[in-house]
Amino acid sequence: MFQSKIAGIGHYVPETVVTNDELSNFMDTSDEWIQERTGIKERRFGSRFKETTTTMGAAAAKIAIKKAGITAQEVDFIIFATLSGDYYFPGCGVLVQRELGITEQEVGALDIRNQCSGFLYGISVADQFIKTGMYKNILLIGAEMHSMGLDLTTRGRDVSVIFGDGAGAVILQPTQEEGKGILTTKLHSNGMYAEKLALLNPGSHGGYHLNKMGIEQDLGYSDAKYGDVFVSQKMLDDGHLYPNMEGKFVFKMAVKKFPEVIMEALATAKLTPADIDVLVPHQANLRISQFIQKILKLRDDQVVNNIQKYGNTTAASVPIALSEAVESGQVKSGDLVCLAAFGSGFTWGSALIRW
Ligand code: ACO
Predict the structure, then answer these.
(1) What is the residue range of 149's domain?
(2) Residues 270 and 215 in one domain
(3) Total-model pTM
(4) Co-location of 186 and 257 in the same domain
(5) In angstroms, what CA-CA distances link 44 with 14, 145, 233, 243, 279?
(6) Residues 140 and 70 in one domain
(7) What is the per-residue pLDDT across 192-203, written as a single tens digit (0 to 9) for each?
(8) Closest residue (by CA) to atom 15 of ligand 1?
(9) What confidence tens digit (pLDDT) does each residue in 316-349 have?
(10) Ligand 1 pocket, 230 CB below 6 A?
């Protein structure tokens, strides 16, 4: 069996910086509220005239491919994690294949819909494919264009101030270097809380899960039978086409599950928190990252935080943060790097990598 390693990494964020003060032009919020509760100072919003989740993913992928010293044509499998795909379907995996100009190879493309933990799920899947010798150059992308689907009014302020756009990508390859690469990955989920952080519509649920979970949401199609139950004018009018989140509930689960899943990975690798050199947590809220840091007794310089600049970029957050940490020299050869994420589903996961 081979071990897998990250052979190349890159990230891309759109040019346009949107500050907290700018958001307060659209909604009743303030720089003080956003910074105090989340740590976020600004985020990037993509340009709808020239960017999509796929194009940002492709931009990050090109850097990762170059850093790995391969050509796009050598990529033998694609994994794309996002919750803000260009289309409802097909997913961004095939679109990025086209964007990179490698359709001729007809390699497989897999889309992952695990929101904030999407990149962790992707790394775990890629690791298994590499270990068994099935693929040699897997392109894994996490990318989001949240700005196209946020309720930028006071009604949506609890969710919309958090999210930003961006993309990160890695190339995973086999390595026979003893002790190097991905040591272990851990994945979990609990569907009991699926609606606590979700974009419920449009969807094929027809109100079924909502009724079952006692969620009152008049979707405006109580008499409809087929066809017109997917999306309705009432959904638009009432803001039911935007994400909803029970922030406090999510927060409480996150601070419990992050340390749990990190400790689980450490136990498998027969390591302890004191062995971690760099922690790259999903950038959901600076307070969540600080809480994990305290539990694991890590110094400030051991935890990568860039939520201040980019907000929460969901599936892109871990690879963007990791890419910046590699670029700045915060992650060095031989370091034990711990990645962890928690989010909608709920789904969560961790990975330990000897860099
Ligand atoms: N600006 C100003 N006031 C606001 C804003 C805003 N943007 N948003 C909410 N408020 C108000 C609320 O209306 C409320 O007012 P009230 O007391 O008069 O009712 C007050 O501020 C407090 O609101 P809370 O929601 O209780 O604030 P909280 O301290 O919980 O912070 C936050 C909210 C930042 C969302 C936090 O709960 C959080 O970070 N949760 C976890 C998010 C997370 O980890 N998500 C997972 C990843 S995302 C994914 O998977 C897609």
Answers:
(1) 3-175
(2) no
(3) 0.96
(4) yes
(5) 6, 10, 30, 19, 23
(6) yes
(7) 999 999 999 999
(8) 158
(9) 999 999 999 999 999 999 999 999 999 999 999 9
(10) no
